[in-house]
Amino acid sequence: MMILILLLASIIFPIAVGYVTVSLLLRNDELFPLEIIAVSYGAGVGIISLIMFIMGALLIQLSVANVLIGCAAVLAVPALLCIKNGWFRSLWVRNITGMIFGIKWFEWLMLAIISIRIMLSYFQALIKPVQDIDSLSYRMMEAKIFFIEHGLSLNQPLGYFIGPTDQKNYPLNVSLFSSWIYCALGTWNDVLVKIIFPTFLLAMVIIFYFSMRRIANRPASLFSAYLLTTLPFLIYHSSTSYIDAVVAFYFFSSFVYLLLFIRTGKTSHLLIAALLAGICTWTKNEGLFLVVGESIAFFFYLAFIRSDVNVRKIYNLIQYFAGILLYVVPWSLFKYFYRAKIPVPEEIPNISHLFEYFYRVPVILEYFYRKNLFYGNWNIAWFVLILVVAISIIKRKFFVENMIVLYAIVFGLAAYGSVYCLSKNSWPYLLDGTVQNRNFLTFMPLVVYFICISIFSKKDNILGPLK
User: Fold this and answer.
1) CA–CA dist 278, 329 (Å, integer)
2) Which residue has the higher pLDDT, 133 or 246?
3) What percentage of the chain reaches a pLDDT higher than 70?
4) Beta carbons within 8 Å of 102's beta carbon, 6+ residues apart
5) Where are the domains of the chain?
6) pLDDT digit string, tens, across residues 376-390
7) Is residue 97 scored above 60 in pLDDT?
């Protein structure tokens, strides 16, 4: 019983850390209470892991007490500001009686199915230990070394510098937070540590629902959230200790809050998007590719669509990139100072291979076609996406918001395709089916989101038609 209490406390702690941060950023711009908790979990995980990383780089022991002290030191001023100015967001579910009695039977059915899917992910995660090869030999092994060494093991011989493998160039968000779970439990536990991953699924579904609720009615929003949980690969990877579903959470949530800023113009939404985008780059190298696409879309919107003074646009860009650089800069500096011990990843595309590997292009397109349309990982999501795009073109109903989301999807396809085509060692992993589905998982929630906003939203609820 005590270990379960400690496990619950270790998950509540990042929510508390994220809640202070989100309350500071939101000020008077409220999100829904459950949505605040979901965002707080994702933000809190990233903030705690960054604090642990900085402490480890400064050779401060990563004990529970030290992490608590470090988080308290960082969040003391924001918490005092929130208390003084009354910025803490309300977490009470408003009009709960009306919400319960107003729900129709089919809405209860959708809620039940969504809940069962999420509980299935928790069940699958908590009945088996870490067993997937990449997780076992990379991320969780790093977490165990950090736990045993009470730090980043910066001076370890025999290749154990910050981890046991040649993947030392991977960001440490999940590894460090997993070591936090081990520290909180007082031992490593390859079953209970996996509670991290279905909790990210739960947070993503909540954010997905409320992002739809702003532009559609409740039945349509619940049905949209249900469609998200029908992706078999998403449910599966939310029960393993692979980190692609975590990247999907950060990329999707950062993108929808960027869209919310574009829709409302409220700076608080932009700051939350920037924070989550920064954590996305801190979770996996692929997160940087996705955030680059998001940044290009944002720049295009500011430069060519929004009619505003240039000074304000530049200020918004600075705010956005500041949140990203908050995570990119410390990790980049660390890799610079320890560059002799951190190999350059071979997955980086090299344009010099363009003509040498040009024969790969039709093969990549064939794999994209077969894996997306004729395997069971995505149900019929890609078929529906193609159909919705075709209908939107025929009826000329492409809104600005739909265009931005579609661009992010196409950019994701192109970015991963360029990696397979121009890098040295990703090619065999494409052919044997190791990487494509996991890579595409990182932006699949946006595929479902595009479908849902195209079908259920009204033009008054999102940005108007592209002129």
Assistant:
1) 10
2) 246
3) 94
4) none
5) 2-89+103-348, 349-467
6) 778 899 999 999 999
7) no
Position 398 pLDDT exceeds 90: no
Task: Convert the pLDDT of each residue in 176-230 to its tens digit.
Answer: 999 999 999 998 888 999 999 999 999 999 999 999 999 899 999 999 999 999 9
Q: How far is CA 69 from the centre of its chain?
A: 27
Question: What's the confidence (pLDDT) of residue 356?
Answer: 76
Classify residue 187 as exposed, middle or buried by CB count within 10 Å of its CB (0-12, 13-18, 19+): exposed
CA distances from 207 to 16, 31, 217, 332, 412 (A): 18, 10, 15, 30, 21
Radius of gyration for the alpha carbons in the chain, expressed in angstroms and rounded: 22
Find where tokens 């939107």 sit: 392
Task: Name the more confident of 339 and 260.
Answer: 260
Measured CA to CA, the distance from residue 173 to residue 253 in angstroms comes to 17
Q: CA of 235: how far to CAs of 33, 84, 205, in Å?
A: 25, 42, 11
